[in-house]
Amino acid sequence: MMSLDDELALRREAMAWLALRTNDGSDAISRDELTRFTFRGERLTLIDQGRGIRKPRECRAALTIMTVFTPSGRRRPYEDVLGADGFPRYKMRAGARSSADNHAVLTAMELQVPVIWLMGVAPSWFQPVYPVYVIGAEPELDQFALAYDAAQTLPLAGSPMEEVIRHYVVRETRQRLHQPVFRSMVMRAYDTQCAVCSLGHSQLLDAAHIVEDSHEAGIAAVRNGLALCKIHHAAYDAGILGISPDLVVGIRYDILAEVDGPLFEHGIKALHGRPLMVLPRRRKDRPAAELLDWRYERFLSA
Ligand SMILES: [Zn+2]
């Protein structure tokens, strides 16, 4: 059995290895690649074939926990994993081998060792979220509470700090969990290309929301997203560039009259009236007309 120091070293190395392969957490990783991690010269898979919880034989605690991809309609892919207090929840395993698996997660809580959460974003593709810590067990609800920091604790219901903590945790969950998962799903749908200009360099691309995620209708499903390069994302958010429900780019009229350098001419003005260059292959991943319409109305009225 590994010492606690070794368990921590393994986790540090696994997280550094993932950072290298995911552009520091911006990109998803395949199931196949997750099996190729090595620790001290030995292959040590980060995902278990057929089980949601991965505890290597030499370890006392779970190393990775996995949430399978569920094709999303209107539902947020992580909706069932969020507690009212903002802390994410991970469902306990059911089935024949479940008690050993659940025990491995409980041990991660007792030892306060970080785990890696593999969030399914497409069949056999995962967005790793790490480090996460198990900060509570709620057996009556068959779930564990997770946090992004070992020092976090679940707020006592009704305590004066409850609302303050909730606000902070909701914001952190959005940054650490929702945004990377949304980004991965949008990038996969658009084949890592800007919908407007087809630029294909991952580091210059964002997953933009059609309806902002702070808005009630701002669901984090791919159909509310667009892969946009940094310049077109900024232009879209600034109301310089609009996308009509029939997927045609419009440029604001006062901008069309402006004269500037080549990027402005070719990268902005020349797009007026052109259809989107890249769309998801799967029909249900394409931008929803009613969401585009809502946003386009605001573009036209600006
Ligand atoms: Zn672009």
Q: In words, what does this structure look like?
A:
The protein is built from 8 helices and 13 strands. A hairpin with a 5-residue loop joins strand 12 and strand 13. It has helices spanning 4-21, 31-34, 98-111, 162-189, 230-237, 253-256, 262-267, 289-301, and strands at residues 29-30, 38-39, 42-43, 53-54, 64-67, 89-91, 115-122, 125-138, 143-147, 205-209, 225-229, 241-243, 249-251. The model has no long low-confidence stretch (mean pLDDT 89). The N and C termini lie far apart (64 Å). By secondary structure, it is of the alpha+beta class. Helices cover 31% and strands 19% of the residues. It has 2 domains: 4-165, no CATH class; 187-301, no CATH class. The strands form 4 sheets. Strands 1, 4, 5, 6, 7, 8 and 9 form a 7-stranded mixed β-sheet that branches. The site of zinc ion has 7 residues, from strand 11.
